[in-house]
Write a sequence for this structure.
């Protein structure tokens, strides 16, 4: 092993990718088995305890992000690359999990808390699940490194918190949550869009659609016709049906549960 646990991507030599390596596949299986199972086992947790959990975990996630940004910035500056404004600023779709957790945990009542809970349990949950499988951090870092662990832990947190809030009944989804969960995305895009067009970054994947071949091609075609702004709008709107997928699954599960309970009562 020619790298240390905390080594930065530029210092790791002769590495291609650990995406879908044996450890990563084991991690995927454990995540999708244990998260729903544990959530079901602790589903009767008192909602006041969940409130406290959200408060504590929101601080944990925020502190870890600060550590991660400081770690990356240290290497960027000491290796002569300077502050990485086009990639290090927390304006990604997944970054919204941090802000939403703070509002969900510390905002007592009202629309900000409700909209952030909608994001956490729809787009956030789905993004976490996708991030567990398509963990881009493993394209840059070997599995047994801080960079890879942080990426996997962060996406696991998104998936686990969203799943637990739904299974515990702390948050019950309705169709309106597709829009409620999307509104925090729109707010973040007001920061991400100027950064993208100024620095050529791809925050929220609304500039180049990086990592997704079909989206990248669409972005390139529209950019060639000076219509990149149209791609930005298309990508933002795409998140609404993605939120709808989670709402639909949630409603289907509750429908099945109600039917099963009804049959048991009749019997």
């Amino acid at each position: 092993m020619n790298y240390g646990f905390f080594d930065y991507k530029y210092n790791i030599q002769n590495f291609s990718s650990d995406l879908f390596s044996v450890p990563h596949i084991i991690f995927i299986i454990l995540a999708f088995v244990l998260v729903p199972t544990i959530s079901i086992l602790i589903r009767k947790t008192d909602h006041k305890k969940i409130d406290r959990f959200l408060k504590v975990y929101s601080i944990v996630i925020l502190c870890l992000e600060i550590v991660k940004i400081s770690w990356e910035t240290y290497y960027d500056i000491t290796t002569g690359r300077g502050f990485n404004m086009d990639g290090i600023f927390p304006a990604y779709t997944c970054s919204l999990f941090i802000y939403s957790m703070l509002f969900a945990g510390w905002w007592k009542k009202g629309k900000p808390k409700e909209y952030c809970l909608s994001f956490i349990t729809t787009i956030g949950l789905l993004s976490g699940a996708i991030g567990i499988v398509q963990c881009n951090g493993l394209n840059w870092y070997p599995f047994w490194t801080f960079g890879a662990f942080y990426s996997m832990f962060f996406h696991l947190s998104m998936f686990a918190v969203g799943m637990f809030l739904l299974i515990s009944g702390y948050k019950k989804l309705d169709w309106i949550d597709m829009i409620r969960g999307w509104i925090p995305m729109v707010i973040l895009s007001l920061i991400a869009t100027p950064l993208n067009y100024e620095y050529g970054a791809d925050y929220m994947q609304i500039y180049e659609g990086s990592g997704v071949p079909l989206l990248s091609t669409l972005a390139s075609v529209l950019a060639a016709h000076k219509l990149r702004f149209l791609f930005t709008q298309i990508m933002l709107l795409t998140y609404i049906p993605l939120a709808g997928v989670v709402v639909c699954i949630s409603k289907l599960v509750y429908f099945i549960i109600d039917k099963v309970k009804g049959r048991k009562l009749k019997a």
The first helix runs from residue 22 to 41. The two ends are 62 Å apart (CA to CA). Residues 15-266 form one domain. The chain has a mean pLDDT of 92.
